[in-house]
Amino acid sequence: MLGPVILAASRSDRMRRLISAAPVTKQVVDRFIPGETVDEVVPIIEDLTAKGLELTMDVVGEDITRPEQAAAARDAYLRLIDRIKDLELGERVEMSVKLSMFGQALEGGHELALANVRPVVEAAAAIGTTVTLDAEDHTTLDSMFAIHDELRRDFPQTGCVIQAYLFRTEADARRLAANGSRVRLVKGAYKEPAEVAYQQKHEIDKAYVRILKVLMEGTGYPMIGSHDPRLISVAQELARRAGRKLDEYEFQMLYGIRSDEHLRLAAEGHRMRVYTAYGTDWYGYFMRRLAEKPANLRFFVRSMITKG
């Protein structure tokens, strides 16, 4: 399987330098990351919302080694929220955050991440939107869920992400579905050991369906993070069986992947949210997109051969 190899490369400084220096890299990266600054992504936000889509915005960058960097990440999100306020799109655009960017891995990281993310959640709520806490590797999840629970006391709309490939996730889903949480279900994109995660695609797919059924039958708000046509069809059927209306769940897909499907689902009346990342520290995000889907890797390699 190429996925684990690519994920290992995402942590390699040597591979970072090699890929970043390739002449074609920026052209390909632009497919997944449409800008480095807020000013560059504002036209994307305006274009997608005009087409009936919703967005969740991610300021990329996870290699935080100093508290000042965590504070800078917080401030970057606050600037983004100010722009969304100016655009009057608070009801259409939310934020996704990785707590590693807010200092979770530093000394006293749990408290530091909570202190940094809370102002972002407060500012988002003030303009009528919300924040979803992205899931990272399995060692960070207890802290993430504890921060999620803490934030929901004052901001119950705060969402979180769960990953189908982890053995623990079905139990997490039952707890979250029972307490009415907003939950994005994804397959998972980190290299996890066999002791904690399914390794085979068919096992992950089966787990995804089991967990999605739990979410659909619960009292929360399921967010289906998948580009897989079969899983999208399964989600629609599970929603129908659970008696959910079209505004009681949503689909989420990455910017630059299956864009026609984004528009098709929105045209059918579904809530369709596009996960849109931007920023200068794009390497780790880009490599995980390659690892998630072989077609993405083929696209990158073909581009390097034909344009490099």
UniProtKB/TrEMBL annotation:
<protein>
    <recommendedName>
        <fullName>proline dehydrogenase</fullName>
        <ecNumber>1.5.5.2</ecNumber>
    </recommendedName>
</protein>
<dbReference type="InterPro" id="IPR029041">
    <property type="entry name" value="FAD-linked_oxidoreductase-like"/>
</dbReference>
<dbReference type="InterPro" id="IPR015659">
    <property type="entry name" value="Proline_oxidase"/>
</dbReference>
<dbReference type="GO" id="GO:0000166">
    <property type="term" value="F:nucleotide binding"/>
</dbReference>
<feature type="binding site">
    <location>
        <position position="289"/>
    </location>
    <ligand>
        <name>substrate</name>
    </ligand>
</feature>
<keyword id="KW-0560">Oxidoreductase</keyword>
<keyword id="KW-0642">Proline metabolism</keyword>
<dbReference type="InterPro" id="IPR008219">
    <property type="entry name" value="PRODH_bac_arc"/>
</dbReference>
<comment type="pathway">
    <text>Amino-acid degradation; L-proline degradation into L-glutamate; L-glutamate from L-proline: step 1/2.</text>
</comment>
<feature type="binding site">
    <location>
        <begin position="187"/>
        <end position="189"/>
    </location>
    <ligand>
        <name>FAD</name>
    </ligand>
</feature>
<feature type="binding site">
    <location>
        <position position="288"/>
    </location>
    <ligand>
        <name>substrate</name>
    </ligand>
</feature>
<feature type="binding site">
    <location>
        <position position="163"/>
    </location>
    <ligand>
        <name>FAD</name>
    </ligand>
</feature>
<dbReference type="GO" id="GO:0004657">
    <property type="term" value="F:proline dehydrogenase activity"/>
</dbReference>
<keyword id="KW-0274">FAD</keyword>
<keyword id="KW-0285">Flavoprotein</keyword>
<feature type="binding site">
    <location>
        <position position="98"/>
    </location>
    <ligand>
        <name>substrate</name>
    </ligand>
</feature>
<keyword id="KW-0547">Nucleotide-binding</keyword>
<dbReference type="InterPro" id="IPR002872">
    <property type="entry name" value="Proline_DH_dom"/>
</dbReference>
<dbReference type="Pfam" id="PF01619">
    <property type="entry name" value="Pro_dh"/>
</dbReference>
<dbReference type="GO" id="GO:0010133">
    <property type="term" value="P:L-proline catabolic process to L-glutamate"/>
</dbReference>
<feature type="binding site">
    <location>
        <position position="201"/>
    </location>
    <ligand>
        <name>FAD</name>
    </ligand>
</feature>
<feature type="binding site">
    <location>
        <begin position="226"/>
        <end position="227"/>
    </location>
    <ligand>
        <name>FAD</name>
    </ligand>
</feature>
<feature type="domain" description="Proline dehydrogenase">
    <location>
        <begin position="45"/>
        <end position="299"/>
    </location>
</feature>
